[in-house]
Amino acid sequence: MRAADSGGRMPEPVGEANDWPDGVCMWNEVPMRQIPGGSHDEQTWVSADGRVVPRKYDPWHDIFEWGSERAVRAADDGALTVDVHDCASRRHVRLARAIALAWLGCPDLLASRRHATQVDDPGSLEAANLAWRVPGATRGLRARRLPKPEDPTAPSRGWRPLKHIWTSKNGDRIRRVDFTMSRQYLMTRDGWVYSAGAGASTRGHVGPDGTRWVALHDEGLARVDDCVWYTFGEGAPLRAPPHPSDQVVATLDALRTGLTLAEWKARDGVKPGTLWMRLFTCAREAPWEAAQECWRLVPGAVRRDVEGRRGAPGETVSEQLARLRADADQSSVLSLATDTDVYGMLHLARALHRREALRLE
Q1: Which domains does the chain have, with CATH numbers?
Q2: What is the pTM of this model?
Q3: d(CA 147, CA 281)
Q4: For 294-338, where are the alpha helices, taking DSSP H only?
Q5: Which tens digit of pLDDT belongs to each residue from 102-127?
Q6: Which among 103, 118, 133, 195 counts the fewest CB atoms within 10 Å?
């Protein structure tokens, strides 16, 4: 939609309400939509009135599980803010932006600098009161549903069952869908997606960076361009995983030298917690073949215990540490190591075990 003309200015595009039915999941009877970004296995969802909740994939039981609601805080200027996504993708954003990313498509014609703002009621952060605006523009209007083009259902448009593979930022392929048998989702070369369950079609909704997203029921968001690639083998080439950061490369180099933890700490002059954080980052972000080097610093007893849990909920890292300490032989590594080191070993082992479980063959 467009804002009304004001004083001879060109009307300002402000966005289209995201009404795709397959993009809604219920959390405690509250309709939620996913915020683009992050990773497929660690998602962030938001309600139309700003309740933000993470949702994490459990690869051992093949289910998504809701986490605890994220706290909303006030910034120095009074704006409400919230954390979205996790680990390397974690961002601190204004709550208005988080809602708009999930509930409001951003017009392609907007300038590179875009922000979400209230339109009618400056005290309301409801999705219906938000718009994408160009800084300096004089007006914006509430987003509303727009009439869509005629649904592309003619056989000549070449519908095919949708296929897609989600890939983590480290390059791991972690989740595959293929609707050849169920035909739950069909797709065309020009990016239309048809949902048999909803009886509706869409070209997805556009984020402020120009990426077009489509939500698949019970799975989450997928890039439309990637769906075209996997379904038809054509279109925009898939993005290559980023090169490891300098810190990850340095951590891998140190691992390959065979240094002990004590030698490593002494050489680099770093605190134990800093060293374990570097190893944790390496386990998540390095290419898998290299990341497996991190297992060298995990005692066999810790690895066996973590792998035996298979992602079982209910036991925190601190609780697992206390249990392992209580059961350990007095001469074992677990008895002689500091709490910081055992805590780091457990975090590292959990990260490696989860990544191994997520990876597709």
Answers
A1: 16-133 (3.90.75.20), 155-232 (no CATH), 246-358 (no CATH)
A2: 0.85
A3: 46
A4: 300-309, 317-327, 333-336
A5: 998 886 555 455 677 776 666 777 88
A6: 118
